[in-house]
Amino acid sequence: MTTTLQLARQLLGFNTINPPGREADCxxxxxxxxxxxxxxxxxxxxxxxxxxxxxxxxxxTAGKPLAFTGHLDTVPLGNTQWRYDxxxxxxxxxxxxxRGSSDMKAAVAAFAVACIHQRETILAGSGAVLxxxxxxxxxxxxxxxxxxxxxxxxxxxxxxxxxTANYPVIGHKGALWLRCETRGxxxxxxxxxxxxxxxxxxxxxxxxxxxxxxGAPHPLMKQPTLNVGRIEGGLNxxxxxxxxxxxVDIRSAPNLQHATIRQRxxxxxxxxxxxxxxxxxxxxxxxxxxxxxxxxxxxxxxxHDRPLAPRVVxxxxxxxxxxxxxxxxxxxxxxxxxxxxxxxxxxxxxxxRLEEAEQLYGEIIGDWMRQPAGVHIKSDSVI
Length: 383
What we know:
Layout: H1 4-12, H2 24-36, E1 40-47, E2 50-58, E3 66-71, E4 91-92, E5 95-97, H3 101-117, H4 119-124, E6 127-133, H5 141-149, E7 157-160, E8 171-172, E9 174-183, H6 198-209, E10 225-233, E11 243-252, H7 258-269, E12 273-281, E13 284-285, H8 291-300, E14 312-313, H9 319-325, E15 331-333, E16 348-350, H10 351-370
Parallel strand pairs: 3-6, 3-7, 7-15, 8-14
Antiparallel strand pairs: 1-2, 2-6, 4-5, 5-16, 8-13, 9-11, 9-12, 10-11
Helix pairs in contact: 1-3, 3-10, 8-10
């Protein structure tokens, strides 16, 4: 029988760095792996070498299936030299190394193997669905394409396998990525008075942005954040630059509207700056008092020393787009990866966490399948 570690190693062997992504080979391998073990599978393309996957084990009783979601693309390796082969899936000192080990191929392996181990329980229950995407790291491109190209199944709850060190998380901040552009007038660098320097215009705008607040804090997600992560402008040192652009990364909470944030920032910057939207992903927050959420917390509690409390994470996930498209079922973010190691050099996942996750996912599946139809979900589970 395939173990979670074996499958995780196989998935890590594929280079799915995004950009460019090229998850298709890895996705096809995983689809074949699932199909060979009884899953029905459906692959869909959203570009050259890019693909998504829906896989399901149908149940035989009334009630909605339990769904898992994860992505197979990874971020680039960075400039620092790795000690371990990023695609070699090496293990050492209780750690599985590789790009995507924490974020989040190990989790995909864990919930897939858990479904296989619980196959008979799933078939006798309400079923299970896997929603596997590419293109998550660059703004949920794969999830957006999946929603546009396929009729998504009606599910009862969603587990997102992003890295949480097996701590159940009920939400995450939203992401609003904006591109700001200034236009000037070029001139010879020795006669700058004849031009309009777009870099100076951008500098004025950046000074304003540095003191801009996206909005009021949220009780659980705290203060929204803003970061200017990229800037470019000018072609050569001896000319007045006529164009500059910089990108702004805003992380928001459910109490804030992205349209309002953008309008406030646009007004602040004035007519010299053109603002356009690159990524617009809403925040996610499930009700902590939902019966299923509390049940998952009970399953996770033995793995942690202190009583579990409602927690959110600052990064975004495909849930921002998938949940509205799925009718807003309750959602838990729960995965074996270490949040602090995502995107890091020599990224790894603890083998102990990987083993815990497989068992934990199996227990959650069993609980779901044994519940009477109709108690799985209430409306308005995500706010």
